[in-house]
Amino acid sequence: MDFHVTYSESQQRFRAEVAQWLADVVPSELLGSNEHFENRDAYELRRDLGRSLGARGWLYPMAPPEYGGGGLDLDAALVVAEELRRLGLGLPPYYDSGGVLGSASILHWGTDEQKAELLPPIYRGEQRTWQLLTEPSAGSDVAAVATTAVRDGDDYLISGQKSFIGSLHGADAHWALVRTGPAEDRHHNLSWFMIDGSSAGITITPQHLLGGIDKNTIFLDEVRVPAGRLVGGENKGWQVAFTHLDHEHGLRSDRFLGQELHRAWERIVEGIADPASGVSTDDPVVVDLLAKIYVKKETVRLLGKRNYWLAMENRPRTYEGPQGYYLEKKTTQWLASALLELFGGAATANVFAGDAGAALVEQQALGAMAMHGGGTGEIQKLIMSRALRLGKPATSASAPE
Amino acid sequence: MDLSLTGEQEQLRRTARDFATRARKSGAARGPSAAALSAWAEMAKLGWFSLAVPERLGGYEAPFDLGVLMEGLGMAACPGPVYDAAVLAPAVLSSLDTADSRELLTGIQAGTVRPVVLIGAESGAASTVHRCDVRVMGDALAGAAFPVRHLAWATHVLVLAADTTHDGGWSLVVVPTDVTGYVADELEAFGDTAHRLQVDGVPLSACVVIPIAPPDLAGVRSAVVSSVAALCAFQVGSCQAALDMSVAYCNQRMQFGKLIGSFQRVQDHIIELLIALDSARWTTYSALAEQAAGPLPVVEIHLAKAVTSEAHLAACDSAHEVHAGIGCDIDYGLAPHTYLSRDLHAYLGSPAWHRRELVAALDLVGSRTATDPTAP
Description:
The structure holds two protein chains of two kinds.
Chain A: H1 9-25, H2 40-55, H3 74-86, H4 97-109, H5 112-123, E1 129-132, E2 148-152, E3 155-165, E4 173-179, E5 190-196, E6 202-208, E7 214-226, E8 230-231, H6 237-248, H7 253-256, H8 259-273, H9 284-312, H10 320-343, H11 356-368, H12 377-387
Helix pairs in contact in A: 1-3, 4-5, 4-6, 8-9, 8-11, 9-10, 10-11, 10-12
Chain B: H1 7-25, H2 34-45, H3 63-75, H4 82-96, H5 99-110, E1 115-118, E2 131-132, E3 135-137, E4 140-142, E5 144-149, E6 156-163, E7 169-176, E8 183-187, E9 194-198, E10 208-212, H6 214-226, H7 228-250, E11 254-255, E12 258-259, H8 264-293, H9 298-323, H10 335-343, H11 351-362
Parallel strand pairs in B: 1-6
Antiparallel strand pairs in B: 2-5, 3-4, 5-9, 6-7, 7-10, 8-9, 11-12
Helix pairs in contact in B: 1-3, 3-7, 4-5, 4-6, 7-8, 7-9, 8-9, 9-10, 9-11
């Protein structure tokens, strides 16, 4: 068993090339900056960086080159992700889960024409995409969405309301799961559309969340969408959604790298060294808390690594994706309480002299909101239970090893 | 990167599991019967007591395979001091490497020496017993150690004893279990038999004394640390057994007219069990793989034990919640794992001990937390 990616000489050269290129291209304003609280100028710098990465095929390094992806193998793609992580940046370097998840679904379910039309703007960083899933009455039960699409000649007219959408500074496109069939045909009454962000009938109102994090409510009022933007076929939307839900629950390289929790750990180490923190590492309680934080973030990282390896090797997977995701969420939730214990009042207001404070304070918001992203923790447990065939007769059950 | 076991490793794990299952069925859990001792000889013949021994001393030196073996044995809570014989005693003896230690190693590999290792916290190494204050007094030993498991199996007790007759301050004393002055009193215990061992007046002339020179004590401590991941693997096997039993049970047990596995509150227990198992498994595999690849991965090893001892406890607790009453029936099969999860919780260091050592090994700014009994 070997936990390390072994890099050949040519891959080492590639790493040096990526590192040098990033050193030249990444603006200093983005180093150590926190996307959630950035102004429009910083956001535009992130988008510029995304377009530069896209032009080289590095924004979606493993995506097919014929649609604008990089066509790189896993090891090379990890090099790009790791070098960006070294600078505190993700891939894409801005919030774009709609692009990451939507492109995976389009690649799997789209026609050749749809792939040629819809994928290049995503892969090249020309477009930021929001995902329109959740509605006021459809959260965990996302198959119960009430937003409808009605056929009108060569188009569909989409009407409804989506909530907890996106972030700051808008998006160029959206994809949405909407209802096209009768309510009683559960799971067979949904369709998946790509929607141009500039379409008439879209109203966006900001939704303010804990910790100053911004989401949006989107109202769709007879938004006209060409039938060619229906991906996967009418009433086949649940299958399309399954592709990106599976992706979200286990395949992402940021999970492989244990990115989010590792960055938090780095801030914590920085934070305790900050004289303003008032934390003493001679205190055995502090030492034990630090150890617990390290232990939990490493456990999440190792399960993420397992999941990524399983996926990339196309090995059989059952419960592993939602398990890793669930544990990451629980750990993020727990981390907020650990920071309260570690830093006391300094966990909730930035009193630090150095740069770590803002990110440490933000962990309170991330912790309080950790459990519902990508479906509540209960949904992940439900998917795991089904994968384990719990409650099915013993003859067909087999426990994983 | 390759996170799979090889075909040979999977075979080794199965063989070990089947072997331990037979050993347990033969009644070996109650003590070293004739059948149990012949099983012990078979393990030696299979080479299982040579996996931790360095090649230069005639062993296979295969840390990852050793972990795989221990995982398989843990799946059936293999009775007897197999961990002492396959992992800990070879590691400690190899680190000392004297004529006496080599002779003992040969006996362990041949299956004729069945060792139990006693290390106390005062030595600075991870401890195997709650208290071990055995010391060299003139030409005899004095003191006691407790609680000691598997003592009925042992031909020899290897005790790290305080010894002020030389500069090092410590000696490894090998005590045959049939000498005068050796007194083992059975303690009331949860789980396998446990003893209080008294060695007052055991003559040194009846023992092998290996003095540990000051620089070698660090080597002994490292040898103990190097043995921890294989212990974790034994616990991983035990967690896997708890999961297998729980999944099978919830898919056959009917209550309220339904399989209990269809109740979400029962499913929650299985999920907690599976998270505990996988956390233990992947931190342990990571430590074993690093150990097989290069220098002693101290951080990964402390991480693995800090996670695995807690996971083992959690896994068995969850299994009991799934099984309810029947899980507590001593003949059902869960009990040996419940016992192990308690016996091994602080064996070779509690989770808190390993967390402290972990932070010391990470060498964070300003932290000075390592246990160093040699420091003034």
